[in-house]
Each structure stands twice: as structure tokens, then as C-alpha cells.
Amino acid sequence: MSTQSVDVIVDLQYGDCGKGKVAHHLCQTKNYTHVLRYNGGANAGHTIFHRGKKFITHQIPAGVFFGIKSVVGNGCVLDPIQFFSELKMLEEGGIDISDKVFVAENTHIITEAHRSEDKREGVRIGTTGRGNGPAYRDKYGRTGKRAIDVPELKPYLINLYQEWHGGGDTQILAEGAQGFGLDIDWGDYPYVTSSHCTTAGVLLNGLPSRAIGDVWGVAKMYETYVGSKKFQPEGEVFNKIADAGEEYGATTGRRRQTNWMNMQTLERAIRINGVTHIVINKVDVLRIVGQWVIYDQNTKAEFKNEDEMKHFVTERLKKLGITESNIFFSESRERI
User: Could you give the count of Cα atoms lying within 13 Å of 82 in the half-sphere of its Cβ?
Assistant: First the structure.
């Protein structure tokens, strides 16, 4: 009888929190048989520094950098043009992709018609215009096209039921796209993405709930958002944060709006996702700016220094059941 063990990476804010860095770290420290991308499409981007080179991946999971089977799951939508472009980029960067990259045969496809439609209508809520929304709509409207119907993808297709439950034991790292604040059900609707960005989204890729092990939540020491809603308050400090943090989208290049971390939003995401480990990135950015602030219970809590803010956050996270040894504060280019 086959067994599955699944560790999950989930973004606790609005995306762009450094999930790729966490995936890169875990791929080196645990013996995963697979890395699964469980939601989203080419509208997301992971920025990964590997052996001195910078790679931006949009659909292919981070396991490919370490020779681990990397699977685009059926919870995703796939743009074949972007997929093959990404494969070429990885090969040209010296990454061996042979027999390492796979696509679930029941993954839905983003077509040219989806991209064209999204570019016309996506301005309304600030989407990336990559076709995700129309592709997911057609998936649930039962008019979509799936990977098994695309001849060019045949060498990469995989049946996830057979892969997970076919007799062998699997140890899977499930990496998510976007963030909890953009989840179709739990985000700030309608300013959301079209997929499930939560730990529960992993299970939609053919995995049983009992397989879930560690859940790595990822956040930043402040918040960022890309889209058309008003997110950034007035004040030059928020522009300074964006400049210091180099806050530009890996997929669109759009400048991200910034704000202070909201403790209640973070706590909500931790509870719903069942977070066991948390990485809070870019602590060096507030150090550069010289201000340390958190919104807590609709009040702005200001701290004298970085250590005071870290202590406050740590104590709150411990009350949520996360042990102190599983709380990590990380700088922009620092390894975990």
C-alpha cells in the first residue's frame, strides 16, 4: 500500500512573500520525491537564486533545480506557450529538465482566447491579463480544454492518481501561488485570484487530508499588494518601503502597493491554513526605513526597534500554537 507525506508552502498575505526561497531551502534539506505546484497559473512568479544565478519561474515548481520530479497539478491552469518558454529558459540556465517536469493530464489549459479576453476585461480589478480567470471559468463551466487534449504536452503528462496511489511511497512538497488574501473564497472579494490559495487547495490535486504534515506559512514584515484597489495609505514612508524592498511584481513588473503588517489578517491566515512553521521575510527593509509598525486591533502599534517588534510578533505567534523554534525572521537575500 502506498503512503503519502505532504509538506505545504502557503503565502499568508497577498503573494510575493518569498515562497520560492522557502521551497528552494526545503528542497535542499528534505528528501522529497516530488514538488507539486497546486494552484494558479502563469500569473504568479517565483524568484529563485540558484548557484549564483537568478531564475524567475511562473509555472514550473522549484524541485527542478534539484533533480526532483516537479509537477504542475490539476489545481492549476497551464499556459503551454509560457510552459515551453520556461523550459527553454531553465535549459539555457544550465538546469537539467529531462524527466523532471510533468503536467497532470487533467490540468486545464489557458488558450489564446483566454489571454485576449483577460487583457480586455482584467483592468477592472487589476488582474495580470494572463488568462487565468477565463480559463478557470471555462473549467467550472465544463467547456474547458485539458492538458491531455494538447498533443505537444504528451511527453510531460502524468496521471496523479497513479503517481500518488500507485504503490510507491511519496514525499511531496506542495508549493502554492499567490496568497491567502487573494484566495477566491477567503480573500478580499472581488479583488482576488481564481484559484484556491490555501492548504485545502493541495487536497484538490488527488491527495488525502491525512497526508498533510508541516505547513510553512510565508509572510513579509510588512504587506504588499498588486492590483487596482486602494491599498497603500498616504505617507512617504510607504514609498520608501517599496524602494528599499524592490517591490515590483516578478510576473508583471508592476510596482506593489505597501502597508504595515496587519496582525489580525495574519492570525486569520495562520488559523485557517493550519500553519506549523512560519517564515517572515524582508525584516531588513524596515531596518533600512527605520520604522517598525504593526496594525493590531485597528490600532497602530509602533516599536522602538526591530528586536522589540520581533518579540511582539513572536509572542503572538506562540499563542497560535507555533513553537518559537519554528518561527524564522529572514532578510531579503538571506537563506533561511
Answer: 23
Distance CA 304, CA 244 (A): 20
**Residue 138 catalytic?**
no
Annotated binding-site positions for Mg(2+): 16, 45
Are the C-beta atoms of residues 279 and 330 closer than 8 Å to each other? Answer: yes
CATH topology of domain 220-329: Adenylosuccinate Synthetase; Chain A, domain 3 (3.90.170)
For residue 298, give the H/E element and its range: none
The residue annotated as part of the active site, out of 7, 11, 16, 138, is 16
DSSP assignment, residue 156? G
Give the predicted TM-score (pTM) of the model: 0.93
Q: Give the residue numbers of the binding site for GTP.
A: 45-47, 256, 282-284
16: annotated active-site residue: yes
| Residues 6+ away with beta carbon under 8 Å from 116 | none
Which of 36-50, 95-109, 217-231, 296-310 is predicted with the least confidence, judged by mean pLDDT? Answer: 36-50
Q: Which of 24, 46, 108, 114 is catalytic?
A: 46
CATH of domain 4-219: 3.40.440.10
Whether 100 shows a pLDDT value over 90: the answer reads yes
For residue 328, give the amino acid letter. Answer: F
